[in-house]
Design brief:
This is GNAT family N-acetyltransferase. Its EC number is 2.3.-.-. Keywords: Acyltransferase, Transferase. It holds the Pfam family Acetyltransf_1. Residues 127-263 form the N-acetyltransferase domain. It contains 7 helices and 12 strands. It is an alpha+beta fold. The protein folds into 2 domains: 4-108, no CATH class; 113-254, Aminopeptidase, CATH 3.40.630.30. Strands 1, 2, 3, 4, 5, 6, 7, 8, 9, 10, 11 and 12 form a 12-stranded mixed beta sheet that branches. Strand 10 (196-204), helix 6 and strand 11 (232-237) form a beta-alpha-beta unit. Helix 4 (135-149) runs antiparallel to helix 5 (154-166).
Length: 263
Amino acid sequence: MDDTAAVLARYDREMRESARPDGPGARVERAGRVVRQVAPAHGWNGVLWSGLDPHSADADVDAVIAEQVARYTALGHGFEWKLYGHDRPAGLARRLRAAGFTPEPAETLLVAETGDVPLDAEPPAGVRVVAVADAAGVDLVTRVHERAFGTDGAALRQQMLDRLAADPEGLLAVVALAGDEPVSAARMELVPGTPFAGLWGGGTVEGWRGRGLYRALVAHRARIAADRGYRYLQVDASDQSRPVLERLGFVPLTTTTPYVYER
């Protein structure tokens, strides 16, 4: 892959500073030094980019944070400040905690050139991968999400339905079926005009892990991204998925931590 610092700078510029709305009903707002997305309550609401001066005083940082809190509070719901490990000033995480934000587990931003990822991985015998194109398919993905991660999938379900209705070319969702039973699922978001295809939500239900399903779904999406001309694959990886992805050629660029503010 190219120089990682250059790829990270390009990611910041094209996917954060120049972010596009990620679904219907969402809009990106640029307010001073901040780029944020405002969406319906079931969508993703949060700060994508903050071009704060590295030498900003705490009082100046606090004022910018307070502006975002006021904006989302007026909308009636909480939001996330997506803080990357290289964001400045260095004390931004401390100021977010002081303002009432709660950090969730950190993830690693991994990127691979599409051509460097093995594309020949297939699911185990008896399992087939199908594309999701309707509400029934979305329900299968939601079932996998809830079983694999132990979380409520209602918001994800509505986001996917909205996105498929408004922009079916921008979202690729796939589910792996053992017979008629959904055992693994994943998504890919394609942003036209950028070189990055985002891999999201790869999860496998207990009892089917360790059989190559995660790798197969990465390869399936990578083939499609390559066919559509996307140069890079991007993942916000948990500690569990990071080793698998690194073996597939993904390279860490930085960390990302969701700082969540509940209304």
